[in-house]
Amino acid sequence: MSTIWDHEFDTPVFKGKVSFPTGIFINGKFTEGSTGNTIDVINPTNGKVITKIPEATADDVDRAAKAAHKAFDTVWGLKCPGSERGKLLSKLADLLEEKWDEFAAIEALDNGKAFWSAKGDVGISVDTLKYFAGWAGKSHGKVIETTEDKLAYTRHEPIGVCGQIIPWNFPLMMMAWKLGPALATGNTIVIKPSEATPLTALRMASLIKEAGFPDGVVNVVVGYGNTVGAAIAEHMQIEKVAFTGSTLVGRKIMEAAARTNLKNVTLELGGKSPNIIFNDADLGKVVNWSVHGIFFNHGQACCAGSRIYVQSGVYDEFLRRFTARAASLRLGDPFSADSYQGPQVSRIQFDRIMSYINSGKEQGATVHLGGERQGEEGYWIKPTIFTDTKPNMRIVQEEIFGPVGVVIKFEDEADVIRQANDTVYGLAAAVFSQDINRAIETAHKLHAGTAWINCVNQLHPQVPFGGYKQSGIGRELGEYALDSYTNVKAVHVNLGHNL
Amino acid sequence: MTTTWEHEFNTPVFKGKVSFPTGVFVDGKFSAGSTGKTIDVINPTNGKVITKIAEATVDDVDRAVKSARKAFDTVWGLNYPGSERGKLLMKLADLLEENQDEFAAIEALDNGKTFSWAKAADLGMSIGTFRYFGGWAGKSHGKVIETTEDKLAYTRHEPIGVCGQIIPWNFPLMMMAWKLGPALATGNTVVIKPSEFTPLTALRMASLIKQAGFPDGVVNVVVGYGHTVGAAIAEHMEIEKVAFTGSTLVGRKVMEAAAKTNLKKVTLELGGKSPNIIFNDADLDKAVNWSAHGIFWNHGQACCAGSRIFVQSGIYDEFLKRFTAKADSLRLGDPFATDSYQGPQVSQIQYDRIMSYINSGKEEGATVHLGGERHGEEGYWIKPTIFTDTKPNMRIVQEEIFGPVGVVIKFENEADVIKQANDTVYGLAAAVFSQDINRAIETAHKLHAGTAWINCVNQLHPEVPFGGYKQSGIGRELGEYALDSYTNIKAVHVNLGHTI
């Protein structure tokens, strides 16, 4: 017996009925959680409950791991040819593409992002699933020359049961990033969506079944981090865990893996990415990109360009135009045709961001724009720009994860690179310059897993993404992602060597 | 001012004088450790002190990291072209080859393995490994990735920075080569902690590294204890990657420490309890020779030792007879005697540990088919030991003994033996003996291990990856795969025309 969510959308941008099971999805079936407790799914525009869904527990994780293990041993893994795995992933992508608007609407309602932005998420999710569908069966082992009395080769085998823990900022897209490479390489999955934004993941569970994935290949368990997340990180039968979220929790995941069965760990963590604008940048384009860098997705992006360094020659003009552009962003209901920005995802996040804004004020930075709530209900925060900061201020050092940018003037090239790299993070960085030397050399000197030149927050399924330093371990997207879901086995066939 | 070790070898297999500094090697110089204390280096043939070397401390690690960081930022990393890094590695290999007898002698004296094995296996593999990775320098290619024509997207395979490396005592020099090779080829700088039990070849290498022309600070060698120097490396905020080879127990601590501090990348090569499965249709004499090599080579002190020997019932009796005769024929003796196969175990601690496992086998009711006792009155020799009549849950069947102790287990059913073989938390290696092409390959493919040997065992090559499934480790050493562990992937997106 499972909960069902029925909802009628009647909005300017989307009208339609949705109805789908929201239970714990294990072994192809939706059920209650082992305790029968539920989780309230909250609408961030007004703090009201959208629906209640079953809460998964550590026992449900155990049940899921068993189902995933059985599926791996019997109907998935190398028992299901790469071409077949690829076909299923393609089918899933097609089904998602057919239901594009429905998924966008659910995402917008659950997360609070504007419908247009959610549509973008769905597009990337479709592309990501299709991209990895194409990789299935193509992670080639090697045949390695040693001597003619040996055949030595490697197999790139699936690992087995993989645990995946995803965040609330791009719920569906993060699911696609995780499922794609894991399924393409033949692993089975126990995935925990964020309890703050579970709805598109639960809708995907039905799609996964509809696409024809065998029962147990993908199991979706929505529960809390300290119960379900911890259970996944500690589970003795889960051989690999992939986590996207805060650096703080990432540490706990890695510690738990070390203490239990030394499962392989990949992490996508926080960032405080620099965006460096030189005098010779194309100013009109830079302003638009910089706005996109920090205000896209309400600043709730791990790679947000939150530290904006502007060379003194263009500082005043940049700040003027950047401020005007930021002030012009329309905050509003996610389903209004002209909204750019909806509310932050939750009360907790709202409070956290406001607390950082207050710390900026208290530590003496100038609120150049915004710095306050918008409206009376829901969690909207106005696009905020701080100036006159000092390097050690919390708003300059720590990840805020909201629509709050700091703009910092610089003069010297070597010095700004040093400042940009002076952080424990290393997820991304952006450089704006029309000079080919300056642009490329700066990008190469920045300690970050992604360096954007004359753009920011641009991701593609085929280009790897991941952190240097405390921003993470491992890479997602691109061919590189396959390595994280592969066990390399070397086989030595002795043809004639005797002792 | 540093300690120096001088020694005159006068043995049947090697005669010669060695003399080299044994201080803490940081920034191209040997010095005392920060506390001035020393570590006794023990000769395992008699328990006596060979020499005292400087003990490195947490402060010395910090000093080493600073030096390594400076070298990385100024004279190494991508400031030093791949072709040049490769040249230095080749030079190091050449110098090692020129001095191979000396190194083999030092290794035999320090570790207790025989001179002939040290020369044939450890030196051969070390030289080959340096040359192999010397050839890879500059060849870890990034990708250029098609997106649209208004973008240039490419990846760089950058060195990570300062890498910490912690190596064990069973193959001291070889483990150093496996670690330095890929790290230096890809442009990283290194702070490496050899085992305090067997530091001498590593310290000799430090001089060779200087002689080869590596800039100061590129390789720093700090000999100290696990709970001080090892921990300091795992916890250091400026070390961006740690590679550890050793026990699963300590591997966990290294990974936890990395998680608690700066989330440095971690690769681990840990323990094993590798199965060696011999089918009725195996070539019996070859299987016997290989099986002895699988468990008795290096005195059983190998992470991938074939310590659980599963023999199909059709050949069990004949195998056991021949295997026992072979084991019994292995000559235990001084590492420098011309006809020794096996020297002492590396230390008193290891000796006690192995004897304790042998006793547990007796107590839990297994049959001592051969050996099971000390050899001689001084030093740490243990006789090649074979247990039979075991049960799966016995400690000698489940746990890694790391000594010349094998368990021989009869089996009948193919599917069942694969299940038994995989029924372990470990997954480092496995071996299959069969002449049937289907049986051999299908079994190898079904074994949950990072290396599967068919009709051989304990055969490693610099070009073939090595590493563990499950709790035997994370990541791969050797082969092209090793480069990935020492590389940071950076994606660069050059926007040529996309506007928003």
* Strand-residue proportion of chain A: 15-25%
Helix residue percentage of chain A: 25-40%
The main β sheet of chain A shows up as: 7 strands, mixed
Shape of chain A: globular
Helix-and-strand structural type of chain A: alpha/beta
Give a structural overview:
Chain B: InterPro entries: Ald_DH/histidinol_DH, Ald_DH_C, Ald_DH_CS_CYS, Ald_DH_CS_GLU, Ald_DH_N, Aldehyde_DH_dom. The structure is a homodimer. Chain A is an alpha/beta fold. Chain A has two domains: 4-269 and 472-488, Aldehyde Dehydrogenase, Chain A, domain 1 (3-Layer(aba) Sandwich); 274-460, Aldehyde Dehydrogenase, Chain A, domain 2. Chain A is built from 15 helices and 22 strands. Chain A has helices spanning 58-74, 82-98, 100-111, 115-135, 171-184, 199-211, 225-234, 247-259, 283-295, 312-327, 347-362, 394-397, 413-421, 436-445, 480-483; strands at 4-10, 15-21, 24-26, 29-31, 38-43, 48-54, 143-144, 150-158, 161-165, 188-192, 218-220, 240-244, 264-268, 273-277, 305-311, 366-369, 384-387, 404-410, 428-432, 450-453, 472-473, 486-494. In chain A, strands 16-17-18-15-14-19-20 form a seven-stranded mixed sheet, with helices on both faces. A six-stranded mixed sheet of chain A has the order 11-10-9-12-13-21, sandwiched between helices. In chain A, strands 7-8-22 form a three-stranded antiparallel sheet, with no helix packed on it. In chain A, helix 2 packs antiparallel against helix 4 (115-135) and helix 7 (225-234) crosses helix 8 (247-259). The longest helix of chain A has 21 residues, at 115-135. Strand 22 of chain A pairs parallel with strand 20 (451-454) of chain B.
